[in-house]
Specification:
Rossmann fold, binds adenosine-5'-diphosphate, 7 helices, globular, about 190 residues, binds guanosine-5'-monophosphate
Amino acid sequence: MARAPRLFVVSGPSGVGKGTLVSRVREIRSDLGLTVSATTRQPRPGEVDGVSYHFLTDEDFDRKVEAGEFLEWANVHGHKYGTLRSEAERNLAAGHSVILEIDVQGALNVRTVFPDAVLIFIEPPSMEVLEARLRGRGTEDEASLKLRLADAAGEMALAEKYDEHVVNDDLEASARRLCAVLDAHEMN
Ligand code: ADP
Ligand code: 5GP
């Protein structure tokens, strides 16, 4: 049966493994479209402008908000992040499903614009594992780490609004489960 392209939204607390999991799913599903978000946060070492994110100044970001270029945007952990409408629409028009890896506020905003979007929440096996992963990643200073862990509780409280839930325990098993969720909705 033919797949229908769908807009998937993946959220979960910082450090749960969204980026890692979605990268693995992209290896399995090379047909998935790629959208690069915009952000006002500083690039981390190794992040490339236009690949990891479009890194924008506050002024440039605000200009795009004014021009209606974002499908959604939100303030997350002290910085602005947004999905460019053009990137998502280009992929869907070409028949490719899209996975947006965005925060909980952005996800719920997407649902108002695209009611057919499928919202998937990635859960940590425990809060201890979440903290260990975030620390183990070694990208955040103590203040940013504390902010992200403090934000995690509020994010987890919104999980019930999501259509699907995947616990990221074993990476390979979780990637398979996420792929199965995508398949099920594309065949609908
Ligand atoms: P997020 O994108 O949700 O902030 P990352 O993908 O950056 O999270 O993952 C955070 C850290 O946890 C990384 O160091 C990553 O290698 C690790 N990680 C991700 N998924 C798993 C997993 N299933 N098991 C163990 N470690 C994981
Ligand atoms: P990070 O700074 O670790 O790359 O991302 C921090 C948070 O911003 C994550 O929860 C991530 O999902 C979210 N995020 C990334 N891109 C977007 C986006 O385009 N829109 C929204 N709303 N959130 C985003």
